Amino acid sequence: MIQKVKLVSKKLTLKKLEHQLRMAAHIITGPIDASDYKIYIFPILFFKRINDVYNEKFETEIELYGDENLSNAAEQHTIQIPKGCRWSDVFSTTKDVGKALQRALRCVEKANPHLYGIFGDAPWTDKKRLPDSLITELLNHFHQIPMGVKDVRDDDMGRAYEYLIKKFADKSNKKAGEFYTPRNVIRLMVNVLDPKVGEIVYDPACGTGRMLLETIHHVQERNGDPRLLKFKGQEKNLTTEAIARMNLFLHGMENFQIIRGDTLRDPKFTNGNKLETFDCVIANPPFSLGNWGHDRWSPDQYNRHVYGVAPKKNGDFAWIMHMYSSMRDNTGRMVVVMPHGVLFRGSSEAKIRETLTKNGALECVIGLAKNLFYGTGISACLLVFRKDEKTLERKEILFINADEIYTKGRAQNTMSEGQADEIYDIYKRQNEASEKIKGVSRWVPIDEIEENDFNLNIARYVQKPLEEESVTVEEALKDFKQKLSDLEESENELKALLVKEGFDP
Q: Of 42, 81, 205, 454, which has the fewest CB atoms closer than 10 Å, so is most exposed?
Protein backbone atom coordinates (compact mmCIF):
# COMPACT_ATOMS: atom_id res chain seq x y z
CA MET A 1 0.00 0.00 0.00
CA ILE A 2 1.25 3.47 -0.93
CA GLN A 3 2.04 5.65 2.07
CA LYS A 4 0.66 9.18 1.96
CA VAL A 5 3.05 11.99 2.66
CA LYS A 6 2.77 15.41 4.22
CA LEU A 7 2.78 18.49 2.03
CA VAL A 8 5.98 20.48 1.99
CA SER A 9 5.26 23.99 0.72
CA LYS A 10 7.79 25.30 -1.75
CA LYS A 11 7.51 28.12 -4.28
CA LEU A 12 7.10 26.60 -7.73
CA THR A 13 8.51 27.97 -10.96
CA LEU A 14 6.52 27.42 -14.13
CA LYS A 15 9.10 24.91 -15.35
CA LYS A 16 8.89 22.86 -12.12
CA LEU A 17 5.11 22.92 -12.19
CA GLU A 18 5.09 21.67 -15.79
CA HIS A 19 7.39 18.84 -14.73
CA GLN A 20 5.07 17.89 -11.85
CA LEU A 21 2.05 17.80 -14.14
CA ARG A 22 3.93 15.71 -16.68
CA MET A 23 4.85 13.24 -13.95
CA ALA A 24 1.17 12.97 -12.97
CA ALA A 25 0.40 11.80 -16.50
CA HIS A 26 3.15 9.17 -16.23
CA ILE A 27 1.44 7.67 -13.17
CA ILE A 28 -1.60 6.57 -15.17
CA THR A 29 0.31 5.61 -18.32
CA GLY A 30 -0.62 2.03 -19.15
CA PRO A 31 -4.10 1.46 -17.74
CA ILE A 32 -5.33 4.75 -19.24
CA ASP A 33 -5.02 5.70 -22.93
CA ALA A 34 -3.18 8.94 -23.67
CA SER A 35 -6.33 10.37 -25.28
CA ASP A 36 -8.15 9.91 -21.92
CA TYR A 37 -5.49 11.43 -19.64
CA LYS A 38 -7.34 14.71 -19.53
CA ILE A 39 -10.53 13.29 -17.99
CA TYR A 40 -8.53 12.10 -14.93
CA ILE A 41 -5.68 14.59 -14.57
CA PHE A 42 -7.56 17.86 -15.02
CA PRO A 43 -10.32 17.29 -12.41
CA ILE A 44 -7.75 16.40 -9.72
CA LEU A 45 -5.58 19.37 -10.70
CA PHE A 46 -8.52 21.74 -10.45
CA PHE A 47 -9.81 20.17 -7.21
CA LYS A 48 -6.38 20.59 -5.60
CA ARG A 49 -6.02 24.19 -6.84
CA ILE A 50 -9.38 25.39 -5.49
CA ASN A 51 -8.74 23.65 -2.16
CA ASP A 52 -5.31 25.23 -1.73
CA VAL A 53 -6.71 28.65 -2.65
CA TYR A 54 -9.59 28.12 -0.19
CA ASN A 55 -7.21 27.10 2.62
CA GLU A 56 -4.91 30.02 1.88
CA LYS A 57 -7.81 32.45 2.11
CA PHE A 58 -9.08 30.74 5.30
CA GLU A 59 -5.71 31.13 7.00
CA THR A 60 -5.55 34.81 6.04
CA GLU A 61 -9.01 35.43 7.49
CA ILE A 62 -8.19 33.52 10.70
CA GLU A 63 -5.17 35.78 11.23
CA LEU A 64 -7.37 38.84 10.74
CA TYR A 65 -10.47 37.84 12.70
CA GLY A 66 -9.55 34.75 14.74
CA ASP A 67 -13.03 33.38 14.03
CA GLU A 68 -13.29 30.01 12.23
CA ASN A 69 -16.95 30.43 11.32
CA LEU A 70 -16.34 33.87 9.86
CA SER A 71 -13.31 32.61 7.95
CA ASN A 72 -15.41 29.82 6.41
CA ALA A 73 -18.29 32.18 5.52
CA ALA A 74 -19.46 32.03 1.92
CA GLU A 75 -18.72 35.69 1.21
CA GLN A 76 -15.04 35.10 1.99
CA HIS A 77 -14.55 32.56 -0.81
CA THR A 78 -15.10 32.68 -4.56
CA ILE A 79 -15.68 28.90 -4.63
CA GLN A 80 -17.48 27.14 -1.79
CA ILE A 81 -16.03 23.82 -0.55
CA PRO A 82 -18.32 22.29 2.11
CA LYS A 83 -16.88 20.38 5.05
CA GLY A 84 -16.55 16.70 4.26
CA CYS A 85 -15.90 17.47 0.59
CA ARG A 86 -12.41 18.90 0.83
CA TRP A 87 -9.06 17.66 -0.40
CA SER A 88 -8.08 16.57 3.12
CA ASP A 89 -11.23 14.41 3.35
CA VAL A 90 -10.46 12.57 0.12
CA PHE A 91 -6.73 12.37 0.81
CA SER A 92 -7.32 10.68 4.19
CA THR A 93 -9.57 8.02 2.65
CA THR A 94 -8.04 4.54 2.49
CA LYS A 95 -10.93 2.46 1.09
CA ASP A 96 -13.08 3.13 -1.98
CA VAL A 97 -10.95 6.16 -2.76
CA GLY A 98 -12.51 6.66 -6.19
CA LYS A 99 -15.97 6.76 -4.65
CA ALA A 100 -14.85 9.32 -2.06
CA LEU A 101 -13.27 11.49 -4.76
CA GLN A 102 -16.34 11.33 -6.97
CA ARG A 103 -18.59 12.25 -4.03
CA ALA A 104 -16.41 15.25 -3.16
CA LEU A 105 -16.36 16.53 -6.75
CA ARG A 106 -20.14 16.31 -7.05
CA CYS A 107 -20.50 17.99 -3.65
CA VAL A 108 -18.41 20.97 -4.81
CA GLU A 109 -20.44 21.24 -8.03
CA LYS A 110 -23.68 21.22 -6.05
CA ALA A 111 -22.44 23.97 -3.73
CA ASN A 112 -21.38 26.07 -6.75
CA PRO A 113 -24.06 26.03 -9.47
CA HIS A 114 -21.75 27.89 -11.87
CA LEU A 115 -19.35 24.93 -11.65
CA TYR A 116 -21.96 22.30 -12.56
CA GLY A 117 -20.34 19.58 -14.68
CA ILE A 118 -16.89 21.16 -14.47
CA PHE A 119 -15.24 17.98 -13.14
CA GLY A 120 -16.47 15.92 -16.08
CA ASP A 121 -17.69 12.35 -15.96
CA ALA A 122 -14.59 10.20 -15.36
CA PRO A 123 -15.49 6.69 -14.07
CA TRP A 124 -13.73 7.13 -10.72
CA THR A 125 -15.45 4.07 -9.21
CA ASP A 126 -14.29 1.68 -11.97
CA LYS A 127 -11.65 -0.21 -10.00
CA LYS A 128 -10.72 -2.44 -12.91
CA ARG A 129 -9.56 0.57 -14.85
CA LEU A 130 -8.36 2.72 -11.97
CA PRO A 131 -7.84 0.77 -8.72
CA ASP A 132 -7.64 2.49 -5.34
CA SER A 133 -3.86 2.09 -5.33
CA LEU A 134 -3.50 4.09 -8.55
CA ILE A 135 -5.87 6.87 -7.47
CA THR A 136 -4.01 7.03 -4.14
CA GLU A 137 -0.71 7.38 -5.97
CA LEU A 138 -2.17 10.16 -8.10
CA LEU A 139 -3.56 11.98 -5.05
CA ASN A 140 -0.28 11.53 -3.23
CA HIS A 141 1.59 13.10 -6.15
CA PHE A 142 -0.68 16.15 -6.30
CA HIS A 143 -0.68 16.49 -2.51
CA GLN A 144 3.02 17.31 -2.69
CA ILE A 145 2.43 20.19 -5.12
CA PRO A 146 1.48 23.47 -3.38
CA MET A 147 -1.08 25.24 -5.54
CA GLY A 148 -2.19 28.27 -3.56
CA VAL A 149 -1.98 31.74 -5.08
CA LYS A 150 1.20 32.47 -3.05
CA ASP A 151 2.77 29.30 -4.50
CA VAL A 152 1.60 29.51 -8.13
CA ARG A 153 0.29 32.62 -9.86
CA ASP A 154 -2.95 32.31 -11.83
CA ASP A 155 -1.09 32.98 -15.05
CA ASP A 156 1.60 30.36 -14.34
CA MET A 157 -1.06 27.83 -13.37
CA GLY A 158 -2.89 28.55 -16.60
CA ARG A 159 0.23 28.31 -18.75
CA ALA A 160 1.22 25.02 -17.14
CA TYR A 161 -2.27 23.78 -17.82
CA GLU A 162 -1.93 24.75 -21.50
CA TYR A 163 1.41 22.94 -21.56
CA LEU A 164 -0.28 19.77 -20.32
CA ILE A 165 -2.99 20.09 -22.97
CA LYS A 166 -0.29 20.27 -25.64
CA LYS A 167 1.46 17.22 -24.18
CA PHE A 168 -1.78 15.28 -24.36
CA ALA A 169 -2.17 16.42 -27.94
CA ASP A 170 1.32 15.14 -28.77
CA LYS A 171 0.56 11.75 -27.21
CA SER A 172 -2.93 11.29 -28.64
CA ASN A 173 -2.19 12.55 -32.12
CA LYS A 174 -5.22 10.96 -33.76
CA LYS A 175 -7.59 13.10 -31.69
CA ALA A 176 -5.38 16.08 -31.02
CA GLY A 177 -7.00 18.36 -33.58
CA GLU A 178 -10.22 18.17 -31.58
CA PHE A 179 -8.78 20.11 -28.70
CA TYR A 180 -5.41 21.60 -29.61
CA THR A 181 -4.51 24.40 -32.01
CA PRO A 182 -0.86 25.53 -32.18
CA ARG A 183 -0.43 28.40 -29.78
CA ASN A 184 1.35 30.72 -32.17
CA VAL A 185 -1.35 30.32 -34.80
CA ILE A 186 -3.75 31.45 -32.06
CA ARG A 187 -1.39 34.32 -31.23
CA LEU A 188 -1.52 35.46 -34.86
CA MET A 189 -5.33 35.26 -34.90
CA VAL A 190 -5.71 37.21 -31.66
CA ASN A 191 -3.24 39.89 -32.78
CA VAL A 192 -5.31 40.40 -35.93
CA LEU A 193 -8.52 40.46 -33.85
CA ASP A 194 -6.95 42.88 -31.33
CA PRO A 195 -9.49 42.55 -28.47
CA LYS A 196 -9.75 45.57 -26.18
CA VAL A 197 -10.53 45.93 -22.48
CA GLY A 198 -14.29 45.97 -21.95
CA GLU A 199 -15.11 43.94 -25.06
CA ILE A 200 -16.81 40.55 -25.33
CA VAL A 201 -14.89 37.72 -27.02
CA TYR A 202 -16.89 34.76 -28.37
CA ASP A 203 -15.71 31.33 -29.56
CA PRO A 204 -18.52 29.10 -30.89
CA ALA A 205 -16.25 26.02 -31.01
CA CYS A 206 -14.16 26.86 -27.96
CA GLY A 207 -12.63 23.44 -27.18
CA THR A 208 -10.46 23.87 -24.09
CA GLY A 209 -10.75 27.67 -24.28
CA ARG A 210 -7.24 28.41 -25.53
CA MET A 211 -8.32 31.04 -28.06
CA LEU A 212 -10.21 32.88 -25.35
CA LEU A 213 -7.18 32.61 -23.08
CA GLU A 214 -4.79 34.05 -25.66
CA THR A 215 -6.85 37.25 -25.55
CA ILE A 216 -5.84 37.50 -21.88
CA HIS A 217 -2.15 37.41 -22.83
CA HIS A 218 -2.80 39.89 -25.66
CA VAL A 219 -4.37 42.45 -23.31
CA GLN A 220 -1.67 41.88 -20.68
CA GLU A 221 1.08 42.52 -23.25
CA ARG A 222 -0.57 45.89 -23.91
CA ASN A 223 -0.72 46.71 -20.17
CA GLY A 224 -4.49 46.25 -19.96
CA ASP A 225 -6.48 44.49 -17.25
CA PRO A 226 -7.85 41.20 -18.73
CA ARG A 227 -10.37 40.94 -15.90
CA LEU A 228 -12.30 43.65 -17.75
CA LEU A 229 -12.79 41.31 -20.72
CA LYS A 230 -15.84 39.10 -20.96
CA PHE A 231 -15.71 35.63 -22.52
CA LYS A 232 -18.42 33.49 -24.03
CA GLY A 233 -17.99 30.09 -25.64
CA GLN A 234 -19.87 27.00 -26.68
CA GLU A 235 -18.49 23.46 -26.88
CA LYS A 236 -20.24 20.22 -27.77
CA ASN A 237 -17.99 17.77 -25.92
CA LEU A 238 -18.70 17.39 -22.17
CA THR A 239 -15.12 16.79 -21.04
CA THR A 240 -13.66 19.50 -23.27
CA GLU A 241 -16.27 22.03 -22.16
CA ALA A 242 -15.39 21.29 -18.54
CA ILE A 243 -11.69 21.76 -19.29
CA ALA A 244 -12.43 25.15 -20.88
CA ARG A 245 -14.12 26.35 -17.71
CA MET A 246 -11.33 24.97 -15.52
CA ASN A 247 -8.78 26.65 -17.77
CA LEU A 248 -10.41 30.06 -17.42
CA PHE A 249 -10.71 29.66 -13.63
CA LEU A 250 -7.05 28.66 -13.40
CA HIS A 251 -6.15 31.86 -15.26
CA GLY A 252 -8.01 33.85 -12.62
CA MET A 253 -10.96 34.69 -14.86
CA GLU A 254 -14.49 34.87 -13.47
CA ASN A 255 -16.45 36.91 -16.01
CA PHE A 256 -17.23 34.17 -18.53
CA GLN A 257 -19.89 31.77 -19.78
CA ILE A 258 -18.95 28.44 -21.33
CA ILE A 259 -22.03 26.42 -22.29
CA ARG A 260 -22.21 22.87 -23.61
CA GLY A 261 -24.18 22.27 -26.78
CA ASP A 262 -24.14 21.88 -30.56
CA THR A 263 -23.56 25.40 -31.87
CA LEU A 264 -24.85 24.85 -35.41
CA ARG A 265 -28.00 22.99 -34.32
CA ASP A 266 -28.65 24.69 -30.99
CA PRO A 267 -26.79 27.96 -30.39
CA LYS A 268 -26.93 28.92 -26.72
CA PHE A 269 -26.18 32.65 -26.94
CA THR A 270 -29.38 34.13 -28.34
CA ASN A 271 -31.78 37.03 -27.85
CA GLY A 272 -35.19 35.64 -28.76
CA ASN A 273 -35.06 34.61 -32.41
CA LYS A 274 -31.75 36.41 -33.00
CA LEU A 275 -28.19 35.46 -32.22
CA GLU A 276 -26.39 37.46 -29.57
CA THR A 277 -23.67 39.56 -31.20
CA PHE A 278 -20.11 40.23 -30.04
CA ASP A 279 -17.15 42.55 -30.59
CA CYS A 280 -14.72 39.70 -31.27
CA VAL A 281 -15.53 36.30 -32.79
CA ILE A 282 -12.78 33.69 -33.11
CA ALA A 283 -12.67 29.93 -33.75
CA ASN A 284 -10.98 26.92 -35.25
CA PRO A 285 -14.08 24.79 -35.89
CA PRO A 286 -13.84 21.17 -37.07
CA PHE A 287 -12.90 21.07 -40.75
CA SER A 288 -15.46 19.85 -43.32
CA LEU A 289 -17.91 18.52 -40.73
CA GLY A 290 -20.24 15.93 -42.30
CA ASN A 291 -23.31 15.58 -40.10
CA TRP A 292 -23.56 19.24 -39.12
CA GLY A 293 -27.33 19.85 -39.08
CA HIS A 294 -28.20 20.78 -42.66
CA ASP A 295 -31.86 19.87 -42.18
CA ARG A 296 -32.29 22.63 -39.58
CA TRP A 297 -30.81 25.46 -41.62
CA SER A 298 -33.22 25.85 -44.53
CA PRO A 299 -35.79 27.28 -42.09
CA ASP A 300 -33.12 28.56 -39.65
CA GLN A 301 -34.86 30.82 -37.15
CA TYR A 302 -31.65 32.81 -36.61
CA ASN A 303 -31.42 33.75 -40.30
CA ARG A 304 -27.94 32.27 -40.72
CA HIS A 305 -29.06 30.95 -44.12
CA VAL A 306 -29.58 34.46 -45.51
CA TYR A 307 -26.70 34.00 -48.05
CA GLY A 308 -27.44 30.34 -48.70
CA VAL A 309 -27.07 26.98 -46.95
CA ALA A 310 -23.79 25.06 -46.73
CA PRO A 311 -23.65 21.63 -48.45
CA LYS A 312 -25.26 18.75 -46.57
CA LYS A 313 -21.94 16.91 -46.14
CA ASN A 314 -19.66 19.87 -45.45
CA GLY A 315 -20.32 22.38 -42.67
CA ASP A 316 -17.44 24.80 -43.29
CA PHE A 317 -19.66 27.62 -44.53
CA ALA A 318 -22.22 26.91 -41.81
CA TRP A 319 -19.54 27.81 -39.26
CA ILE A 320 -18.53 30.89 -41.27
CA MET A 321 -22.13 32.12 -41.49
CA HIS A 322 -22.82 31.43 -37.81
CA MET A 323 -19.76 33.45 -36.83
CA TYR A 324 -20.52 36.19 -39.36
CA SER A 325 -24.05 36.46 -37.94
CA SER A 326 -22.56 36.71 -34.42
CA MET A 327 -20.52 39.83 -35.24
CA ARG A 328 -21.70 43.10 -33.74
CA ASP A 329 -22.47 45.89 -36.23
CA ASN A 330 -19.82 48.64 -36.47
CA THR A 331 -17.34 47.12 -33.96
CA GLY A 332 -17.57 43.43 -34.86
CA ARG A 333 -14.58 41.55 -36.24
CA MET A 334 -13.92 37.87 -36.78
CA VAL A 335 -11.03 35.50 -37.48
CA VAL A 336 -11.64 31.85 -38.36
CA VAL A 337 -9.39 28.94 -39.39
CA MET A 338 -10.61 27.11 -42.50
CA PRO A 339 -9.31 24.57 -45.04
CA HIS A 340 -8.32 26.11 -48.38
CA GLY A 341 -11.31 24.46 -50.05
CA VAL A 342 -13.62 27.23 -48.81
CA LEU A 343 -11.75 29.62 -51.11
CA PHE A 344 -12.68 27.90 -54.36
CA ARG A 345 -15.22 25.07 -53.96
CA GLY A 346 -18.36 25.43 -56.10
CA SER A 347 -22.10 24.78 -55.78
CA SER A 348 -23.85 26.36 -52.77
CA GLU A 349 -20.51 27.37 -51.26
CA ALA A 350 -19.75 29.52 -54.31
CA LYS A 351 -23.00 31.43 -53.82
CA ILE A 352 -22.24 32.19 -50.15
CA ARG A 353 -18.65 33.13 -50.99
CA GLU A 354 -19.83 35.52 -53.73
CA THR A 355 -22.25 37.32 -51.42
CA LEU A 356 -19.72 37.60 -48.59
CA THR A 357 -17.20 39.05 -51.05
CA LYS A 358 -19.65 41.54 -52.55
CA ASN A 359 -20.88 42.91 -49.22
CA GLY A 360 -17.35 44.07 -48.32
CA ALA A 361 -17.03 42.47 -44.87
CA LEU A 362 -14.27 40.04 -45.92
CA GLU A 363 -11.11 42.00 -45.23
CA CYS A 364 -8.28 39.51 -45.55
CA VAL A 365 -7.33 35.95 -46.57
CA ILE A 366 -4.11 34.58 -45.04
CA GLY A 367 -2.65 31.33 -46.35
CA LEU A 368 -0.66 29.31 -43.78
CA ALA A 369 1.96 26.59 -44.23
CA LYS A 370 0.90 22.97 -44.53
CA ASN A 371 1.10 20.45 -41.69
CA LEU A 372 0.89 23.01 -38.87
CA PHE A 373 -2.22 21.59 -37.24
CA TYR A 374 -2.45 18.42 -35.17
CA GLY A 375 -4.62 15.76 -36.77
CA THR A 376 -4.34 17.03 -40.35
CA GLY A 377 -1.50 17.67 -42.78
CA ILE A 378 -3.51 19.92 -45.09
CA SER A 379 -2.88 23.62 -45.44
CA ALA A 380 -5.23 25.99 -43.68
CA CYS A 381 -6.09 29.64 -44.11
CA LEU A 382 -7.38 32.43 -41.91
CA LEU A 383 -10.40 34.49 -43.00
CA VAL A 384 -10.70 37.94 -41.45
CA PHE A 385 -14.06 39.74 -41.45
CA ARG A 386 -14.94 43.20 -40.14
CA LYS A 387 -18.18 45.20 -40.00
CA ASP A 388 -16.65 48.64 -39.49
CA GLU A 389 -17.38 51.40 -41.97
CA LYS A 390 -13.85 51.55 -43.39
CA THR A 391 -13.84 47.85 -44.30
CA LEU A 392 -17.36 47.84 -45.73
CA GLU A 393 -16.56 50.83 -47.97
CA ARG A 394 -13.23 49.43 -49.20
CA LYS A 395 -13.70 47.56 -52.47
CA GLU A 396 -10.59 45.41 -52.03
CA ILE A 397 -9.56 42.26 -50.19
CA LEU A 398 -6.06 41.71 -48.80
CA PHE A 399 -4.40 38.41 -49.74
CA ILE A 400 -1.33 37.24 -47.80
CA ASN A 401 0.61 34.14 -48.81
CA ALA A 402 2.45 33.02 -45.66
CA ASP A 403 2.96 29.40 -46.68
CA GLU A 404 6.75 29.72 -46.45
CA ILE A 405 6.79 31.30 -42.98
CA TYR A 406 7.23 28.25 -40.76
CA THR A 407 9.83 25.90 -39.28
CA LYS A 408 10.07 22.53 -40.96
CA GLY A 409 9.79 19.49 -38.72
CA ARG A 410 10.18 15.78 -39.34
CA ALA A 411 6.58 14.85 -38.53
CA GLN A 412 5.00 18.22 -37.79
CA ASN A 413 5.81 21.70 -39.02
CA THR A 414 5.70 24.52 -36.49
CA MET A 415 5.27 28.27 -36.33
CA SER A 416 7.39 30.18 -33.84
CA GLU A 417 6.22 33.26 -31.97
CA GLY A 418 8.53 35.35 -34.13
CA GLN A 419 7.07 33.86 -37.31
CA ALA A 420 3.52 34.53 -36.11
CA ASP A 421 4.50 38.13 -35.41
CA GLU A 422 6.16 38.36 -38.84
CA ILE A 423 2.88 37.44 -40.54
CA TYR A 424 0.98 39.87 -38.32
CA ASP A 425 3.47 42.60 -39.20
CA ILE A 426 2.77 42.01 -42.91
CA TYR A 427 -0.96 42.28 -42.21
CA LYS A 428 -0.51 45.43 -40.13
CA ARG A 429 1.77 47.16 -42.65
CA GLN A 430 -0.62 46.38 -45.46
CA ASN A 431 -3.49 47.95 -43.53
CA GLU A 432 -1.50 51.08 -42.82
CA ALA A 433 -0.36 51.49 -46.45
CA SER A 434 -1.91 49.53 -49.31
CA GLU A 435 1.45 48.55 -50.73
CA LYS A 436 2.11 45.34 -52.61
CA ILE A 437 4.76 42.98 -51.26
CA LYS A 438 5.82 40.99 -54.31
CA GLY A 439 5.05 37.29 -53.97
CA VAL A 440 3.65 37.72 -50.45
CA SER A 441 0.71 40.10 -50.25
CA ARG A 442 -1.57 42.27 -52.33
CA TRP A 443 -4.82 44.23 -52.08
CA VAL A 444 -7.07 42.82 -54.82
CA PRO A 445 -10.05 44.79 -56.19
CA ILE A 446 -13.37 42.99 -55.82
CA ASP A 447 -13.95 43.66 -59.53
CA GLU A 448 -10.92 41.48 -60.32
CA ILE A 449 -12.20 38.75 -57.98
CA GLU A 450 -15.56 38.90 -59.76
CA GLU A 451 -13.78 38.36 -63.09
CA ASN A 452 -12.45 35.13 -61.53
CA ASP A 453 -16.00 34.02 -60.58
CA PHE A 454 -15.33 34.91 -56.92
CA ASN A 455 -12.63 32.27 -56.63
CA LEU A 456 -10.48 33.32 -53.65
CA ASN A 457 -7.60 30.91 -54.25
CA ILE A 458 -4.57 32.85 -53.02
CA ALA A 459 -2.32 31.68 -55.86
CA ARG A 460 -4.55 33.50 -58.38
CA TYR A 461 -3.71 36.85 -56.83
CA VAL A 462 -0.33 36.49 -55.14
CA GLN A 463 2.25 34.65 -57.20
CA LYS A 464 5.82 34.00 -56.21
CA PRO A 465 8.34 35.51 -58.65
CA LEU A 466 10.25 33.01 -60.76
CA GLU A 467 13.94 32.89 -59.95
CA GLU A 468 16.72 31.70 -62.18
CA GLU A 469 18.73 29.00 -60.52
CA SER A 470 22.44 28.52 -61.00
CA VAL A 471 23.51 25.10 -59.72
CA THR A 472 26.96 23.57 -60.08
CA VAL A 473 27.46 19.91 -61.01
CA GLU A 474 28.83 19.23 -57.52
CA GLU A 475 25.73 20.80 -55.87
CA ALA A 476 23.38 18.86 -58.14
CA LEU A 477 25.18 15.58 -57.37
CA LYS A 478 25.08 16.29 -53.63
CA ASP A 479 21.37 17.05 -53.82
CA PHE A 480 20.75 13.84 -55.80
CA LYS A 481 22.59 11.72 -53.22
CA GLN A 482 20.66 13.34 -50.37
CA LYS A 483 17.34 12.58 -52.08
CA LEU A 484 18.41 8.97 -52.64
CA SER A 485 19.28 8.71 -48.95
CA ASP A 486 15.91 10.22 -47.95
CA LEU A 487 14.12 7.77 -50.26
CA GLU A 488 15.95 4.79 -48.75
CA GLU A 489 15.14 5.98 -45.23
CA SER A 490 11.46 6.38 -46.14
CA GLU A 491 11.36 2.87 -47.65
CA ASN A 492 12.87 1.39 -44.47
CA GLU A 493 10.31 3.20 -42.32
CA LEU A 494 7.50 1.91 -44.53
CA LYS A 495 8.78 -1.67 -44.34
CA ALA A 496 9.04 -1.47 -40.55
CA LEU A 497 5.49 -0.16 -40.34
CA LEU A 498 4.17 -2.95 -42.59
CA VAL A 499 5.89 -5.60 -40.47
CA LYS A 500 4.49 -4.04 -37.31
CA GLU A 501 0.96 -4.20 -38.75
CA GLY A 502 1.38 -7.86 -39.79
CA PHE A 503 2.03 -7.44 -43.51
CA ASP A 504 4.81 -9.04 -45.54
CA PRO A 505 6.67 -6.20 -47.27
A: 454
